[in-house]
């Protein structure tokens, strides 16, 4: 009876007329006008640089001719899946997909846990000055230009004058041409990327850890839990949703290896391990002016990324009840 009474007591939602909806919309816009003005630049940016270029995806299914202008996107000869078939039949397809996947996979495996571990360590420092100083030092590399980072890597790893090789020679070894031998490129890419980004990427995890209620820490201390037990049974479960969400977002970029860094570090001698989809698209599109073919390869890359994100999100929602949507 109480359940029935409570159901009957629920007020009915009034349906608004079109005029009432318009008035409510104008009222909300007037109320939030300053917030909307702050959001406008972000919206304009994504419209111009993310959504408007999507109209050019039709190029992947047509024979686009350079110099035909915007109308050439829609007046070119329709070729269907010709460019996709050509890519998969090319001798470079497997190498490109393999290199792109492995660089991203290694970066994820070795680069994703480091910010979490660093955040756990930094929040355990009791000295506030030491904590802030350490954070600032680790944040700085993220704001250094990719060009500068690649210049530093080239100088440090130089076979003749690089500090790394000088240390190797002094230790009794022989100088290594890190950027000239294919087997070293992935290690150089992953290690330098992790070093540059782990401090900045830890900000979100530090904020999540700081959001854990102090009363829970006190309860763990009263129960006699050690620091390791506190991290294992309190901190990690508390930041689990944050970890899962960021992992799903990272999986979306699994095939989007940074073009600038690879392009600045690689050379034709190490294409076997360094050439990735983004650099191949650049050479085919800008270098060889095969715009339709390059667009098809880039579209394939984006579709694979979407499938990975969608699948990871569905699995996460079923297994952990945490998802992006």
TrEMBL record:
Compartments reported by the entry: Cell membrane
Membrane topology: Multi-pass membrane protein
Superkingdom to which the source organism belongs: Bacteria
InterPro entries: MetI-like (IPR000515), MetI-like_sf (IPR035906), UgpAE/MalFG_permease (IPR050809)
TM helices/strands, residue ranges: 34-54, 66-85, 105-125, 137-157, 187-212, 233-255, 291-312
Claim: GTP-binding is one of the keywords in the record: no
Primary localization class, coarse: membrane
Keyword vocabulary terms for this entry: Cell membrane, Membrane, Transmembrane, Transmembrane helix, Transport
Domain ABC transmembrane type-1, chain residue ranges per copy: 97-312
PANTHER family with a match to the protein in the record: BLL4140 PROTEIN
Family: Belongs to the binding-protein-dependent transport system permease family.
Protein name: Sugar ABC transporter permease
Top-level taxonomy: Bacteria, Bacillati, Bacillota, Clostridia, Lachnospirales
